[in-house]
Amino acid sequence: MGNWNWHKNWKLLAAGLSFLAVLGTPLCGLTEASAQKRIVPDPDGTSVRTVKPLQAARISERIILPSSSDAEADGDYETENESFQEETGELQGEGGELQAESASNALALAPLFAGPAQDFWSGWNGDLSFLDGSRGDGTEEKPYQISTREHLMGLSILAAGGMEIRKGEGTYPGDYSGAWFELTRNLDLGGIPWIPIGFYENETAMQAKNGQAFDGHFNGNGKTISNFRMYQPGWTEAGLFGILENAVVENLTVQPGNILTVKDTAGILAGSAENSVIRDVTVTGTLKTSGTVGGLVGKLSESSIVENCTADHVAIDAGTGKEIFIGGIAGTAAESLVADCTVNTGDSLSARIQGGGYVGGITGFQNGTDIYNVHVMGTIGGTGSQSIGGVTGKYASGKMKVARFEGEIASSGLGSASREGTFIGTRDPGFHFRYGTGEGADLAYLFADKEEKIAAGICGSGIADDNRYSYDAHIGFWNSRDNFFSLIQGQNRQIVETRYFYEELENGMLHVIDTEDAVRNFTFAPDHFAPNALGRPVRGYLVSVLQIDTAANVQNYYDVATLTARSESVYGRELDKDNRGAVAPGDVVTVTTAPKNTDEEKYQMDGVPTYTDEDGKRQEMAYKTGGTYSFIMPEHDTELSAVYKKVAASVRIEPEEYLFRVVQERTGDRKNPSVTTEVRDGAGRLLARYLNGELDPGTKVQDVSFEAIVDRENDVEDEAVAWSVDDGDLILLKKNPDEDSSGYTRQSASIELNLNADFFNRIISQEEKEQADMQYRYPIPDTVYGNGTLGGLAVLTARTRPSASFEGKPAAANCRISVTFQIKDRTNVAAEGASLNKTGLSFTVTRILSGDRKNPEERMTVTAPETLQAAFSPDYFDKKDVQWSVDDETVIRVNAGTYEGAGSGTDYKNAVIEARKDTKWIQDIMESDDAVYRQDVYRKRDGSGTRKAVVTVTADDTLGNRQTASCEVTVQFRTEDQTEILPEAVILNQNELEFTIMEEKAGGPLSETTGMYGLEPKQLSARLLPGLAEETVYEPYNRELIWESSDPAVTVTDGKVTPVQDGAWIQEARRSAPYHGEKEVTITARAAGNPETLASCLVKLTYDMECLETTRKELVFDMTLTKTGPRRNPVLTWEGTDGQEIQAKQYPVSQSGQQENENKLVWKTDDKLLAFDDEGKIFPLTDADWITEAMKTYPYTAEKQTEVTVSSEKQTETINVTLKFKMTDRTYSSSSGGSSGSGGSSGSGGGSSSGITVNGTTTSAVQAPAGSVTGTWVQDGAGRWLFTSEGRTYASEWAYIHNPYAKEGQESTSWFRFDENGHMQTGWFQDQGDGSWYYLHDQSDGSQGHMYTGWRFLDGSWYYFGADGRMAAGWHWIDGKCYYLDDSSGRMLADRITPDGYTVDSSGAWTVDGVVQIQPDSV
Question: Max alpha carbon distance in the chain (Å)?
Fold first, then answer.
């Protein structure tokens, strides 16, 4: 039995029974008489309805208390239901008494479920207040409203009681079988252990399989029930609902959120369904059972329908039992229908549809059940499954048509015993099925997403011929790359590209609808297939086009028009009466229709095409351009149709033509004439006369009528016609008394000519415009208009009523109505107006003050006179007099002529207007302004004023009309003060500044500078007099100061005075001891507004260099050792070894002339090479090792470099020392008799220059010109350099210039060349005077542009430039050797024969027999 602990809760039950007794609730059953008839009060209490009698079993139920043995057996039995009590709350108060929220709303459990019922229902807080009638009466129109979890629990109680409440069991007794219930909101059940709706009263009933079904209509209203638990391994027929019989559950989503664990016959929605309908339900969740189970429902039977349901992300594990059935929708399905369903499961081992029995994607066992339009995704089956089918696990009978399998068939692992099919797992040999679309066929339109799935077999029974079918069965696979598909027949494949895959599916559904009687026996709406934007199949709704028939004159006409429809999808097909199809909801459907006319029969659509709504009512389509119609596809099937009628007619009008003649005569003033208009017919009969637009008194407008004759002589039953005029503006059609709402009448047409029609107005406007364009000089011509010229033509039409016309076609007849119009102009011209070319003139009298505000210059100006021109309208009017006048002659003067009649007189149309500047009102303003100025001579004068006068021209014509025109003249006086305030004095805050500059060197004067001090800027400030506030009245006042320095040694910016670090005076001081300089510079602050106003400050500059200077920078000891006498005992004679004196001095010197730290100098040298003597001279050591080594090897020469350093506390100076050694051996052998030998003449070998013409002798020592130029280098925007000195810019000339940019090791003074624009030149330069070539340094390294001298390696060759910079050419002695320099290019030749036949070696020197020739004078 259940999980209720009777032993522990006996007192609770007793208290509950007592509580119910207090409420007057009977504890015993009803009498038989009371059971025969049940009444349920309506909500308004005024009527009752009869319900069915209670079942006999319910009548006999009584309270059965547990025996002691029951209590002992269950004493310690605690299961999940106890925790359920804790979660939901027991109906127990502090005193142990049973409590209820409301006695009227609570359904007592004890009498309802007698005895062991409490094992399920104890603590189950169901609320039945939804039955009180205030929220519905249980009808389809007013269903009971389920809005809380407790309501749903109450419904569970109600269903477990057989859908009945007996009298005395609660406030709402009655039979609720077949009642309608509606869910009003999403319900979260809070994770409670759930008892199904439609379940067992107690454990005994469950063991006896005597359950109480839910018998009603439950509409989920699109809402969701979620979050409930069910762990009952012993339960059967369990889910949200337990047992459904004769029930409907629809429009619901169920999401338990917890694994549902039951024994058998389980589904997320329901355990079983008999003769029930489940529609539009979606379930999500996981089921775990040991028996038959379905994702939606465990068992379907007895004509049940499952339609448009989805098992989404459903997983099932049914254990290892063999004779059980597992399906994504239903475990078993018998004599039922499953249509338009989708199953989506997982692919992992723990999230799929699997079990040890028969597993199918839709149903585990298909027995007499038809399955149409299903779609399965995910993995079906698993290890140990008896059989696995993508749709059906085991097949007995029934149809399977239009199925898609997009999942995987898992391996059962049973080897040859496995039964695995893409759509059907297996069947017993006693059952069979047929493929195809013919009568009695069972399987058709089966598709998978991959070809190999079809090749694996439709059915896995292993029975011969179970997978033999032809193309007619429509079995195959769809293409993932496009919208087409392929059909399979045996080993053959047919690629279908004549229709899309969605069309194939839709054809399958149409086949099912048209051929399957079983479908028509069920009440359901099959889904259809339509294309989406990409052409893929989506749900659509059927569009059916009806045949269009009509009737006329008691005769029927069939198929009289075409009607076609097409959806907005580019993949959609055209639909008509012979070709149905589906369209996706929301798509725009475009409809075209046209009659099938013949020569004898004509048809016309009445209204617009229509489509049916969900109630079958016809709705009109919207009209589009091009004769098409459209509507938005609804979410239901629809039928399209249109109504056509048969049409035809004939009619004539008498008279067939008519003429109006209209004449307008004008007299009087041409612009405002008197107008008389007469209207006559073609025969001249006067129809109407109008004076200035009004009907002439005493006359009336004559009638003009027309008769319509239908057929021959109106010999028809209804001769009514509708009159119309194509130009309703020209011809006014009068309404007849007998006209109906459609405008049809049996009377003649009466018309009237509209003299205000556009035809007349257009002609009159045109003629008046042309007359106006000619300034009304000429009358309007007597032209006759109309009868087609510029209009004047209308057509009167009579049209028969369509319903009374031959073949229903309106017949029409026309009458031509012509209108002529003539204007006779007899008017005269009169004066109409006068105007001036200007309505206003402005003059300005200006007092202009300029110069110094304290002593201004003054002048008066006035705007030039202007001419007013008078114009008269018209100019040719009859003139009598024209006069000019002015109302205030103190303001302006007017000079004009007059008209004296008959065209004589002076120029009366023009008047010259000029302003007066010498008038008193202006003088008064100036005097007032000057008085203010005298109080403040720096203040601007701004006196101003304005006066006005009016000039009028008057024109009188001979008709007594007077026309005038006026011009307002404004004279403005203003003062234009252009004076400026001139600064009168500049005051500086200091008159003298001093700068003491110290440059600290690393060593000597030319060594690196290690510090520069005393260059910090100093600020000067200045102010101007007068000191005036910065106000507009004191402007312009140029308060700007111009700061100037008398020498570039100092810069000044906005009063900031800064010494220039490398000023020329500092550079001059650096050149020689004592490296001291002084300079005075004047800084001037000048008023920009008055340059003569200025103030000066004297700047005193002192410069000193802190350095260590030696008397010599380099020492050279050219030592010669001559050995004479006997070789064994030679005489050694040394030359060049005398000591050389070096002195050092520190700067700056003190004021007394003494060197600072004079005794702190430290001298150092290499004591292995040099030594100091007592006098402080330095001399070489002749016994040094390097000399000893040189004396050992011919040619007995050597050279050594060393240095001497002298240091003070801050500076160190280095003197480079070059030691040269040469030994001449003139010794002789003692046996030679003292001959001197020939060694002494060896130095002159090869000195002859015989045969060589030398252009000149050149040495590498460059003699610089005395003196050099100093100045300023300037680089322009293009990067070119210019040089100025003392205001002079060098151009087209050479200059010997001190270069401040030269770096250490570079020449500080060099020759530079400047072109005609003053730009410094670089690279090769040829003097045009004598043709000489020079080279000017072209690298930007601080010495760019300096002239080369000596040897230079350029462009891969050696060149030689003399001391004057000229490039050498030809033969030249250079440093004692003779070189050949190419005559044309100047390049030195090397290692070759010269053009004149001499040899030069690799260094370019002239050689004879390999010996370099030495210049004779240098030997």
Answer: 184
Q: How far from chain centre, in Å, is Cα 617?
A: 47
By CB atoms closer than 10 A (0-12, 13-18, 19+), residue 822 is middle
Average pLDDT, the chain: 84
Are 630 and 624 contacting, i.e. CB atoms less than 8 angstroms apart?
A: yes
CA dist 996 to 868, 1011, 1044, 1111, Å?
A: 80, 14, 21, 28
Question: 1320-1337: per-residue pLDDT in tens?
Answer: 999 999 998 888 999 999
Q: How far is CA 376 from the centre of its chain?
A: 41
pLDDT at 712: 60
Coil, strand or helix at 772: helix
3-state secondary structure of 478: strand
CA 799, CA 243: separation in Å to the nearest integer?
72
Structure tokens of 8? 């522990």
Alpha carbon distance 355, 439 (integer Å): 36
CB atoms near residue 541 (< 10 Å)? 19
Find how far residue 562's CA is from the centre of its chain: 48
Would you say residue 213 has pLDDT above 50?
A: yes
Encoded amino acid at 152, one letter: L
Question: Burial level of 655, CB count in 10 A (0-12/13-18/19+)?
Answer: exposed
Q: Can you tell me the mean pLDDT for 1395-1405? A: 92
**Within 13 Å of residue 1112, how many CA atoms lie on the same side as its CB?**
14
Q: Which helix (H) or strand (E) holds 507?
A: helix 501-515
pLDDT of 1400 higher than 70: yes
Q: Which amino acid is at 311?
A: A
Strands 610-612, 618-620: pairing is antiparallel
Q: What is the pLDDT of residues 764-773, one digit of tens each?
A: 999 999 988 9
- Taking residue 1160's Cβ as centre, other Cβ atoms within 10 Å add up to 11
Higher pLDDT, 198 or 918: 198
Instruction: Specify burial of residue 461 (Cβ count, 10 A radius: 0-12, 13-18, 19+).
Output: buried
Structural tokens at position 148: 């809380």
CA 1403 to CA 1414: how far, in whole Å? 14
651-710 residue pLDDT tens? 889 999 999 999 999 988 888 889 999 999 989 999 999 999 899 998 888 889 999 886
Beta carbons within 10 angstroms of residue 175's beta carbon: 21
Can you give the pLDDT at residue 261? 97
